[in-house]
Amino acid sequence: MDNDHEAYILLLLSDSNLPTGSFVASAGLESYVTHGFFSSASPSSTSSTADKMGYTVNFLRDSLSTYARSALPFVLDAHRAVEDALRDANASTGNAMDCAMTRVRELDELYETMTLNHIARRASRTQGVALLTLFSKGFVKPRLSQHLEASADSSADIRAASLMNRLKLLVRREETHGHLPICWGVLTAALGLSAERSQYLHLFLQARSLLSSSVRLNTIGPYAAQQLLLHAVRPLVDAEMSRCKHLGTGHTEATDGAGEDMSDEDVVRGPAMTWPLGEILAARHDLQHSRIFNS
Amino acid sequence: MAPSKLEQGHGRVVLHNDGNANVFSEMSATYPLKLLSPQLPSPDVSVVYMLSYGGGLVGGDRVQLNVEVYDGARLALLSQGSTKVFKARPGQRLSTRSKLHSVTTQRLTVRVAPESALFLLPDPVTCFRAAKYEQVQTLHLCKDSSAVLLDWITSGRKSLGEEWAFSQYFSLNEVWIEGKRVARDAMLLEERDVLSGPLTPRTLAESLAPYSCYATLIMYGPLLEDTMRHLTAAYGAITVFKQHAPPPLLWSLSPICEGRGCVVRLAAKETEHVKNWIGSALKQLESILGVDVYRRAFS
């Protein structure tokens, strides 16, 4: 895939108006604020703007860190599975596509069993399915015979579209869950984005979505959010990328016999949650007396 | 009692019930693991203490315990005092072999037959400064087996000023039912490397503050139905209004397996607080395991 194409896809996917459902998700931030984690140690003083920016960055760092460690391996493996299938232009293409779908379903199931917080599970499914809808409604080539040549589709494009359709159908039939990191990996591979760009953009969008939640919760203002996006999010995403971009799920048919047969290194290198406090707070989302987000 | 030779640090427990009472058809362990089963008044409830010599594990220790429970027997696995994990001995790193093994590991694999039950209720793990610890616990259950798995960790020796000062703690809990994995709870707590770039380091202690004890409680099966119903109702009745400081204890509950099981997570400023909370949440174990076993686990 050439650079211009990749750059253009990046522009499209980073559009904040893209209907991905992320605007109703705060990934536990709303609950974090409600539970008093935005208050300074001294009870007398009310938090200043700088304090609030500080608390926001606390949350951003811990939240992004645990998300990167739990979700990036799934983005990578789902992306790889689809990329491999699309690259394979041989006669056995049908077979390659079946393999890719099987793999994607395995990953989706593993993510479901690893996401033990029901609120996060719900939010992840909603956003994953939104991505599939986005592809089928927003990214397929329109029928415009006066302007676009119908024959210009490459066979890879056609295969990508059919793969996305199959996944969407499986989710609709409730044969798979449609979790966000898996759907993101599949979508970005179908659009021809490299695995690394895909992971980087996924983390960036996650961080930006947290900051926009922050603005809607009125904990920081829109200018402060921009400041953080430029000065804090970039080093943060870079750091998490260098920690997690090479990690896979470690999940293949061969290793499916449970952790007991795996070596120590294999076990620790797999996806893991790193912030138990965030898990508890996120799972308590629905207990809040008033709330504006779904997660 | 020990038909097959066990590797160092390995242990094996097989519990049957002959129709009248529980019978250990096997119970053996090798250094540094030691197993102890006290006499109990109730015939179909057994307790096994998992002990390590000297009350702690040193860097590089590897313990592996396999447990099987059959015939409707009920088994509680307990420890005596918290599992203390020391850092790797200096000098041990000289040899390549022990360098590979500088992580202290504990693995527990349990198989629970239909209508049988396993209650894993150890004291918390306490990792000392610079310790590296890894734990893998796998439960293989049948549809109508019951199980409770408690996995908890404290921030260290507070009296020595240790607050989340270990170097790595990794815990993996898996629940399989009829050969299908239904839950994989992987948690990694580690001090992060110092980053290049403008961000100042954020320590593990900062991320986990203000709490110094975290617990995960996984429950499944018919024996736990009342307990889960009670907890789910209590959880649903909580209404959180805007708070001005983090509360001393926080807990959450998420159902798994269409409500036949659940995952409870807790955080509290004091370990004692967590212990009391769990003790009262699992109060029903008094009737399932008997008052004596309940007291052994929670007092």
From TrEMBL, chain A:
Signal sequence range? none
Q: Which UniProt keywords apply?
A: Chaperone, Nickel insertion
Query: Pfam families attached here?
Result: UreF (PF01730)
Q: Kindly give the Gene3D superfamilies that the UniProt entry links to this protein.
A: Urease accessory protein UreF
Q: Name one GO molecular function term.
A: nickel cation binding
Record InterPro entries: UreF, UreF_sf
Family designation:
Belongs to the UreF family.
Q: Per its record, how is this protein called by name? A: Urease accessory protein UreF
- Taxonomic classification: Eukaryota, Fungi, Dikarya, Basidiomycota, Agaricomycotina
From TrEMBL, chain B:
User: Is Isomerase one of the keywords UniProt gives this record?
Assistant: no
* Residue ranges that the Swiss-Prot or TrEMBL entry lists as coiled coil: none
Q: Which GO terms describe its molecular function?
A: nickel cation binding
> Taxonomically, which superkingdom?
Eukaryota
Please provide an example of a Pfam family that matches this protein in its UniProt record.
UreD
Q: Keyword Chaperone on this protein?
A: yes
Keywords on record: Chaperone
PANTHER family in the cross-refs: UREASE ACCESSORY PROTEIN D
Among HAMAP family, the record links this protein to:
UreD
Q: Which family does the UniProt entry place this protein in? A: Belongs to the UreD family.
| Name of the protein | UreD-domain-containing protein
